[in-house]
Amino acid sequence: MQIFGQNPDRIVEGYSEEFEAGFLELMRRSHRFSRIAATVVYNEYIHDRHHVHMNSTRWATLTEFVKYLGRTGKCKVEETPKGWFITYIDRDSETLFKEKMKNKRIKLDMVDEERQEREIQKQIEIAASSSVSSTNPLSNSEDNTTRELNLEAAAAVGKVGFALGSSYKDNVTSNGSGNNGSSSTRLVFEELDKDNNNNNNNNRKIDKNGSKVSGNSALEELMREEEKVKEKMNRKDYWLCEGIIVKVMSKALADKGYNKQKGVVRKVIDKYVGEIEMLEKKHVLRVDQDELETVIPQIGGLVRIVNGAYRGSNARLLGVDTDKFCAQVKIEKGVYDGRVLNAIDYEDICKLA
Question: What is the full DSSP assignment across 241-272?
Fold first, then answer.
């Protein structure tokens, strides 16, 4: 008692550290991946006759200790009508290493995807510029061909005109109508020039329109191919991601008041299970994605594209089509900033928290 009286805070702190370490060690060994009632773990802990009594620590009750574990991030805690439930948070070096490697792989995949998207975008720009530049060579070649035909036609007409002039030389000189013959020849040339000019103009119009249509069709075809590639790469059978608001649709949780309630996805476990923090009660649940639904915000709200070609992009909701169960969104930031998707399924977008 004399030692305790000299430094009570240090003694209490030491017992508190021992109690916490023993409690968490029991959680790590026996309930590492389980959500379990705090009273069950405490009863298992006090079965050891060498355990540290709670009345020697700075926590007066088990509830205070459980809240402390939740505040410090050592356990996930949840208050229910049946009492406090806790889930151990594994902070071992091996687990941290695996999580670090997983995040690294995700970043590498994102970098590869962005690089591929830039290459595809570059190909689209090259195709667009080549389709525009190809208009002039085509029209020039057509103009050259037309000019050659016009020269040949003019030469042929000239020969006919001169032949007629020589055959009727005597009549022309005798009648004094030489000027009429030359004027008729000029009329023939003028008519041919008019016809040739009209043909050239028509050919140019056809060439320009034809090249424009073919260029646009090639560009549209390339963009469709890009969409197919992205859709095939990013269409998965899982869609959960952190930071979105989902609706719980679980009949098993209906008796606890969680069915048809909304929550925020705080963590994704093994791609298919989400840790959901409920918006009203602030409880944390683990729910499979099959028992969750996406939430559509009001017009103008932000959404995350959770599946399909543009998976992982943030977008703004522009409108909805209730008959076709699809929405119109505009992607914000990233590689596809400003791109508008006119018909994306409800299940492929979800409201951001």
Answer: -TTBEEEE--GGGGGGT-TT-EEEEEEEETTT
| Half-sphere exposure of residue 342: CA atoms within 13 angstroms, side-chain side | 0
Which residues on neighbouring strands pair with residue 302, listed in sequence order? Answer: 316
Sheet with 262-269, strands from edge to edge, namely 284-288, 273-278, 262-269, 245-248, 292-294
What phi and psi values does residue 279 have, to the nearest 5 degrees?
-70, -35
Residues in the chain: 353
Domains, the chain, with CATH or none: 2-91 (1.10.10.2030), 100-234 (no CATH), 245-351 (2.30.30.30)
Query: 339 to each of 46, 116, 131, 302, how far by Cα in Å?
Result: 61, 17, 22, 15
User: What pTM does this model have?
Assistant: 0.44
Digit-coded pLDDT (tens) for 102-161: 777 777 777 777 787 788 888 888 877 776 665 555 444 445 544 444 444 444 444 444
CA 26/CA 15 separation, integer angstroms: 17
C-alpha to C-alpha distance for 197 and 188, rounded to whole angstroms:
14
Backbone region of residue 264 per phi and psi (left: phi > 0; alpha: psi in -120 to 50; beta: other values): beta
Distance CA 157, CA 151 (A): 10
Integer Cα distance of 207 and 214 in angstroms: 10
The sign of the dihedral angle between the CA atoms of 199, 202, 204, 206 is negative
CB 287 within 8 A of CB 274: yes
What burial class does residue 278 get, using C-beta atoms within 10 Å of its C-beta: 0-12 exposed, 13-18 middle, 19+ buried? middle
